[in-house]
Design a protein that fits this description.
By secondary structure, the chain is an alpha/beta fold. The protein contains six helices and 27 strands.
Length: about 425
């Protein structure tokens, strides 16, 4: 038992031995330097008797001179010692700084290598997930959808928004692709489940409760066709752009936005709601630019109800066309700079602005058709504040009179013909 103890004490013993020798060496050097200074000062005090440097026994000093020489020697020796100590301290500090710089560089190199390793692993996971989406088995494709979602989360954790955006781009591309069909031409129910899984993955990450938010990312569903499935976005927040230009919703497909907020560019231009299709915005806040230019409702249901177009947003429905079906703006508040229904075309169906309100800006109804026709339009309790400027044509004004209960324009509105 004694050997291990003695062995453990050996390093401390060696350190103490080295420290003792170092202190002895310093003491000897101090004495030598002091002696040299003493002889030099003694020679200066004694006058030009430099022989004392060769024979110190020739030194003959009075008490006062001896006191002065001794004091000067101690002061000079102290200055030399301080200088040496300062030099050693500077060297020690410089060494520590260099060691710190080296340690930081090594840590940075290690971190860079670690980051490169993580990025490589994420890229491989991304490639594997994309490969799964191309498989014929629906279960494998669904696994690929969830794998892409997790990979995007990990990209965000790693601080790479472009990596996460790549995952979102692939998911959106899958929704833009034609739906898989069975041999009889009907939509494959298994593929509908995959597409619903994509929408669910997006909606979960866009929620305020999401651990890793996808709100700043961009969503491109231009030209997508939805004929089956239910795609629900609830309490989602879009700070990046969301575009569905030229998209089509028909059949049994339902696209629902409930309690959402659009802050980035929102573009639903040329959106078509076909037969039995359902597109619904409920309690939605529109803040960013964009609009619904050339919206087509042809046998389906479209609604923006109890929603709000905030100042700075775009409530543009230029050349909207309702052929059949229903378009609802019930209870919606328009506060954008322009609420534009220019060239609105009502061929049939039912358009309702029941309890809707225009709070600010300009309401543009120029060349809008059949708004006073009770068979196709309902403006019950529709309201505009006095600050709103209404633009319309002479024909529309004449058509308002026969149906004041259906189209309740307030006389205090300001009308400015084109």
């Amino acid at each position: 038992m004694s050997k291990p103890n003695s062995g453990a004490q050996e390093p401390d013993g060696r350190v103490g031995w080295r420290l003792g020798w170092l202190l002895a060496l310093i003491a000897i050097l101090t004495l030598v330097v002091g002696a040299i200074f003493f002889l030099l000062f003694a020679a200066l005090v004694s006058g030009p008797k430099w022989e004392i440097l060769r024979d110190p026994r020739l030194v003959q000093l009075s008490s006062a001179e001896l006191y002065d020489v001794t004091r000067s020697t101690l002061a000079a020796t102290g200055l030399v010692g301080a200088g040496v100590a300062g030099g050693l301290a500077f060297r020690r500090q410089r060494t520590k700084e260099l060691e710190h710089v080296l340690a930081v560089a090594q840590h940075r190199l290690g971190s860079d290598e670690n980051e490169r390793s993580k990025a490589s692993a994420l890229r491989q996971r991304f490639a594997d997930a994309v490969d799964h989406l191309g498989r014929p088995e629906a279960a494998v494709r669904i696994a690929g959808v969830y794998a892409l979602g997790q990979t995007a989360d990990d990209w965000l954790v790693a601080g790479s928004q472009p990596g996460a955006q790549s995952c979102v781009d692939v998911l959106c591309a899958y929704l833009r692709m034609p739906e898989h069909s069975l041999s009889d031409g009907s939509v494959d129910p298994a593929d509908v489940e995959v597409r619903e899984a994509v929408a669910l993955t997006l909606a979960r990450r866009l929620s305020a409760k999401a651990k890793h938010s996808w709100s700043p990312l961009h969503y491109d569903l231009n030209g997508a066709v939805f004929t089956s499935g239910r795609f629900l976005f609830e309490e989602s927040k879009f700070t990046g752009s969301f575009t569905m230009t030229g998209a089509r919703v028909q059949g049994s497909a339902q696209l629902i936005f409930r309690k959402c907020r659009f802050e980035g560019g929102t573009h639903f231009g040329e959106l078509t709601v076909g037969k039995s299709g359902f597109v619904w915005f409920e309690n939605v806040e529109f803040v960013g630019r964009g609009g619904f230019r050339q919206l087509r409702v042809d046998g389906g249901s479209f609604g923006i109800v109890n929603s709000h177009f905030a100042p700075g947003s775009a409530a543009r429905f230029t050349r909207m066309r309702l052929k059949s079906g229903v378009a609802r703006f019930t209870g919606t508040r328009f506060e954008s700079r322009v609420t534009d229904f220019t060239h609105l075309q009502l061929d049939g169906g039912w358009l309702t602005f029941r309890e809707a309100t225009v709070l600010a800006g300009t309401l543009n109804l120029d060349d809008a058709e059949r708004l006073a026709d009770r068979e196709v339009a309902n403006f019950e309790r529709f309201h505009c504040t006095p600050q709103v400027t209404v633009r319309g044509n002479q024909t529309l004004l004449k058509e308002r009179a026969p149906v004041p209960n259906r189209l309740s324009f307030e006389p205090r509105w300001i009308w400015r013909p084109m």
